[in-house]
Write a structure and sequence with these properties.
Strand order of the largest sheet: 1-2
Number of domains: 1
Helix content: over 70%
Distance between the termini: 49 Å
Length: 313
């Protein structure tokens, strides 16, 4: 006969949602965030900005082409609206997510309640996952609330289910990673301000440095191949460039859409890149983006749990 402990463990395994909601940190954070006015104001501003840009894009497209009568123009407008919504969501989530978690642990230290939490039966993993889950639940609300605006593209055409799935995965992974980035800095820093500044500094550097490296490697690649004719060096630089493109959310989204439009391929590209003819097929950037940032998320989460568990010096 099965023991009472094994039966209880099986029940928890069968109902992971209930097990997650039993975490007191999640309940406390969700109640505090959703009962306040700040969340609803942020949601309104978030949807308002996206709606304003969509109206501007639609009006500009209406001035340059006949969306009403031309089917190809309608499909182009649908792709433009869909792409605008996804890019705006990527930008907004990149700057909203760290602000929700950068003070998750440091605020407990500043209120001098962190040591009290450590004396309870709550483990470091439950504390980190509780703080992270409460922030992600609000970000998922932002992503889901923008779906009706994205669905406007289906009325015009030009957007398929594959694009919707790929963009949704990128948005979810972006939200999870930047939330984890904020809680990582919050786990070992003493002040909320320094953790917030460090989180946004990493995000800005990821956008700026990768853009600079993109043009630098493209330039060096063209010089090396045209001057020396080294196929091996060209292939290495092409792989490095493709990886850098795939680690930037905006570049990955744009290049994935270009590949899908030009080659009708959601997963691979067979076209030679930057003069390279020996490196096909290459995976679509959104695949590399999702895999790479899921790995980084796992690493940052484990480090956050370690720093929370570690005694303060």
């Amino acid at each position: 006969m099965e023991t009472t402990t094994s039966i209880a463990e099986k029940k928890k395994w069968r109902n992971p949602f209930k097990q997650m909601m039993d975490n007191p940190v999640i309940l406390k954070e969700l109640r505090g965030r959703m009962r306040g006015r700040q969340s609803f104001v942020l949601l309104t501003i978030y949807l308002g900005l996206i709606a304003v840009f969509i109206v501007l894009v639609y009006n500009l497209l209406g001035l340059t082409s006949s969306i009403t009568w031309d089917p190809s123009a309608r499909q182009g407008a649908g792709k433009a609206i869909f792409g605008t919504v996804v890019l705006l969501e990527l930008l907004l989530l990149s700057f909203i997510a760290p602000g929700l978690t950068a003070g998750a642990i440091t605020s407990e230290r500043e209120r001098q309640t962190f040591e009290i939490l450590r004396t309870t039966l709550l483990s470091a993993r439950s504390l980190v996952l509780g703080k992270l889950s409460s922030a992600l639940s609000f970000l998922f609300l932002l992503i889901i609330s923008a779906l009706p605006i994205q669905s406007l593209a289906f009325l015009l055409g030009g957007v398929g289910l594959g694009e919707m799935v790929a963009s949704s995965l990128m948005l979810i992974v972006t939200a999870v990673f930047f939330c984890t980035l904020g809680i990582f800095f919050s786990s070992f820093m003493k002040r909320t301000l320094t953790a917030t500044v460090a989180s946004y500094a990493v995000i800005l550097l990821s956008f700026l440095i990768l853009v600079m490296i993109f043009f630098l490697i493209a330039y060096v690649e063209s010089i090396s191949y045209n001057t020396f004719g080294s196929r091996g060096l060209e292939n290495i630089l092409t792989l490095l460039l493709w990886f850098l493109i795939s680690t930037n959310p905006l570049m990955a989204a744009v290049m994935s859409e270009v590949i899908l439009v030009d080659q009708q391929s959601l997963f691979f590209t067979n076209r030679a890149l930057f003069g390279s003819s020996g490196l096909s097929p290459l995976p679509s950037p959104w695949l590399l983006y999702v895999g790479f940032y899921l790995f980084l998320t796992l690493v940052l989460m484990l480090l956050s749990i370690y720093y929370v568990k570690r005694p303060d010096r």
